[in-house]
Amino acid sequence: MVIKIAPSILSADFSRLGEEVEMLDKGGADYIHIDIMDGHYVPNLTFGPIVVKALRDRTQLPFDVHLMMTNPMDYIDDFVHAGSDIITVHAEVLPHLHRAIEQIKQKGVKAAVSLNPSTPLSVLDYVLEDLDMVLLMTVNPGYGGQQFIPAMMNKIRKLRSKADSMNLNLDIQVDGGISLDNIKEVSQAGANIFVAGSAVFNAQNPKEMINQMRKEASGS
Ligand code: DX5
Ligand code: ZN
Questions:
Q1: Hey, whose CA ends up nearest to atom 4 of ligand 1?
Q2: What is the pLDDT of residues 116-141, one digit of tens each?
Q3: Is 15 exposed, middle or buried (0-12, 13-18, 19+ CB in 10 A)?
Q4: In contact, 191 and 172? CB cutoff 8 Å
Q5: Terminus of the chain with fewer CB atoms < 10 Å: N or C?
Q6: Which ligand is in closest contact with the Cα of 144?
Q7: What residue ranges line ligand 1, CB within 6 angstroms?
Q8: What string of DSSP letters covers 58-92?
Q9: Is pLDDT above 80 for 155?
Q10: Residue 36 C-alpha to ligand 2 middle, in angstroms?
């Protein structure tokens, strides 16, 4: 699987978001991970489609939009028009998960489903083949800078072996507490797309950090 680094702008300087996105682009990021928080599904509030749209002309990199919202389907169209390339919804809020995935794909963007740490993999049983990516939360969503939950290592392994047994080239993204200290082990467990917020933005040199993280994850 191709290794990708997806820095999260949740840890960026919000007063100069455009420049931060340009910095990530020049620094070799693969995706721009954009955390949308609605103050209901998670306690925190971030930004909406207007901000995503305002950032769109700053980079050609794919916008990886993570919707931590109670009612994501009401906003899919807006986020697509704002320039999203991948839209991730949380399984926990969607009684009609299959329908939600279809709606995202019909808009011509990639569809991903995210699971909180305590949500079992079995909720994906009948939709896995329809997905471009699964996002396994490795912290409880809502804030940057939290600690990776060690029990998630086994969850990643299980999902990769399930995808392999089904012959699926599934992207497995991990989000929360990913750093230079654990990215190699997380990669060996089977993840290939790594969200990193505080690790990148708290680094002395974010560009260097992106490169180092990619090298570690690639085992080179
Ligand atoms: C957490 C968000 C993450 C967050 C990760 O709810 O979904 O994308 O930015 O931040 P770090 O990498 O600092 O754990
Ligand atoms: Zn996220």
A1: 144
A2: 999 999 999 999 999 999 999 999 99
A3: exposed
A4: yes
A5: C
A6: 1
A7: 8, 10-11, 33, 35, 66, 139, 141-142, 144-146, 175-178, 195-199
A8: G--SPEEEEEE-S-GGGTHHHHHHTT-SEEEEEGG
A9: yes
A10: 8
Instruction: Look at residues 34, 60, 63, 27 and name the one whose alpha carbon lies nearest to residue 212.
Output: 27
Angle between helices 206-218 and 17-26 (to 10 degrees): 50
CB within 8 A of 169, min separation 6: which ones?
A: 1, 163
Report d(CA 71, CA 41) in Å as an integer. Answer: 9
Q: Measure 36 CA to ligand 1 centroid, in angstroms.
A: 11
The pTM of the full predicted model, rounded to 2 decimals, is 0.98
d(CA 135, CA 90): 9
Residue 10 CA to residue 56 CA, distance in Å, equals: 16
Looking at the CA of 37, which ligand is closest? Answer: 1
Q: Ligand 1 atom closest to Cα of 148?
A: 14
Catalytic residues: 35, 175
pLDDT of residue 27: 98
Cα 85 to averaged position of ligand 2 atoms, centre (Å): 15
| Domains, the chain, with CATH or none | 12-218 (3.20.20.70)
State pLDDT tens for residues 45-64. Answer: 999 999 999 999 999 999 99
**55 C-alpha to center of ligand 1: Å?**
19
For residue 8, give the ligand 1 atom closest to its CA.
9
